[in-house]
Amino acid sequence: MNVKTNLPALARSGIRYLWHHWLRPLALPLLLVASAKSALADINYVPTGSMQPTILPGDVVFINKLAYDLRVPFTFARLARWSDPARGDIVVCFSPADGTRLVKRVVGLPGDTVELRDDALILNGTRQDYAALPDEFTRDLSAAERAASAFARETLVHPTRAAGSRAHAVSTQPGRPALRTFGPVTVPADSYFMMGDNRSNSHDSRFFGPVSRREIIGEARAVVVSGDLDRWLRPRFGRFFTALD
User: pTM for the full model?
Assistant: First the structure.
């Protein structure tokens, strides 16, 4: 009888001990860490090949959330804004279709006209430049992926300034059904047209439309660590701490 009578008191004592010695001391540090991840910097695991060969499935990328603005943690409210995404930036954004968090490349700025013709990108009536992609950019892909894909180095040409041009790797899979011709469409004000570097396997602005500036939460700057999903997460050490182009 005494044991049963004391059970509620023991439970209350245990809860108080847990709160005072474990939960309360950790509450503030955890809040600070969560706030920093929300507003300052974060990492993002990439499970798909939509940005291949720039970002591979199994990459964990570093996200600079201060790249464009400062936001109130856990909200979209902006405290300060010092820049906007540039053409060629790799950003983390939310899909307008379902709110999924995505990693995509900015190819169209507000006011741009965007087209795709037989996998070639056309911006404001100008076909972008394409060149052969060096083998080093595809070395971490499997032999089967390399054989099934066509690769190129795409340069997003600034309409008036050569210094504003930026080059990056793109890929297509000629044998795979894909949206290879699209547009033209004009990007609305305060919105951005997103595409994956893997043009044959990317759910992007061709399907869900431009992404509003508000939904862009940071810039992907580097691969932190990487594991090969087809080889039991075998580390790809050559990709550790590498900058993203």
Answer: 0.86
